[in-house]
Amino acid sequence: MSNTQNVFIFRFRTIFLFVITSAISALGFLWPFLVTTRSSNIEKLFLWSAVPIALAVLIVEISNRRLDAKSVALLGVLAGIASVLRPLGAGVAGIEPMWFLLILSARVFGSGFGFVLGVLSLFVSAFITGGFGPWLAYQMFAAGWIGFLAGSIPQRFFRFKIRGRVEIALLTLYAIFAAMFFGLLMDLQFWPWAVGSQTQLSYIPGGPISDNVHRYLVFHFTSSMAWDVPRAIFTSALTIIAGPAILFTLRRAHRKAAFVAPIEFGDLAGRTIERVKAQTGQI
To answer: Where does the UniProt annotation place the signal sequence (predicted)?
Structure first.
């Protein structure tokens, strides 16, 4: 089998697992609008399936050589730092310093790295905070999505690299979006059980989707802004203040470590073939 075929198989396998992981996590978040009865079976199935599939993504990333030993070591270091940063805010009004580090790391190392870093950071932080529960799988995949989207922000605008103040402004806007997005997703797993069954904001098992969506949105905007807005302000402020220095440090580490390839889900075929040719002396 040729190198091109191997690269295609590796790439297809990783993308396939990522799509399956995202689909399962999406079902886990959206189940209140999809099921007809109040049941915890779907939530349990999601919780039991989420962590093994996330670990499968990591294993595939390592096996297809998009994460070499240096990348795995850096992933462990950043996940450890992020997990320690998370409880520093003591859960006060949604202030969690880890998010800006996740966004900046994903920006430098790519969407695949950002996804795995987000998942692992929340998993490791659960050991520190004792935060194991049905909510953990939701937090892990919400963080994974945030990391993936941060790594997917374009590096160039036509021929111009996005750097300097423009890059910081772009990441600041994304930090605000990510903070709000995380709150929106977390309320989805909390809302069906939060307000009982006899209020105007209660989840209606088997009710019309439009009614449940309306009730959820009212619940979210009346109960979560005290958490989401401070999280957005704090994360964006850290991005503005520390972003340039952190980006410089991470990019310098990337160059010094001489990773075998960009750590992302994107097209790797061309670069892999060039690397193989260089190693065999064909170019």
So the answer is: none
CB 14 within 8 Å of CB 112: yes
Q: Are 69 and 229 in contact (CB under 8 A)?
A: no
Q: Is the pLDDT of residue 235 over 90?
A: yes
At residue 271 the predicted structure's pLDDT band, cuts being 50, 70 and 90, is: very low
Where does 64-133 have alpha helices with state H?
A: 69-85, 98-109, 111-129
Would residue 120 count as lying in a domain? Answer: yes
C-alpha closest to that of 21 among 116, 107, 125: 116
Does 274 reside within a domain?
no
The answer to whether position 278 is within a domain reads no
Token look-up 């790391």 returns 105
List, in order, residues 6 or more apart from 166 with CB less than 8 Å away.
none
Q: Say which residue, 5 or 17, is predicted with more confidence.
A: 17
> Rounded to 10 degrees, what is the CA torsion of 230, 246, 86, 119?
110
Q: Report residue 46 CA to chain centroid gap.
A: 17
DSSP letter (8 states) at residue 94? G
Cα gap 183→92, rounded to integer Å = 14
- Give the integer Cα–Cα distance in Å for 151 and 266: 10
When pLDDT is averaged across residues 12-30 and rounded to a whole number, the result is 78
Count of domains for the chain: 1
Does the pLDDT at position 69 exceed 70? Answer: yes
Mean pLDDT for the stretch of residues 139-162: 91
pLDDT for 267 beyond 50: no
* Residue 163: its H or E element: none
List the one residue out of 241, 263, 224 whose CA is nearest residue 109: 263
103 has pLDDT over 90: yes
Rg (CA), the chain: 20
Q: Which domain holds residue 249?
A: 3-269
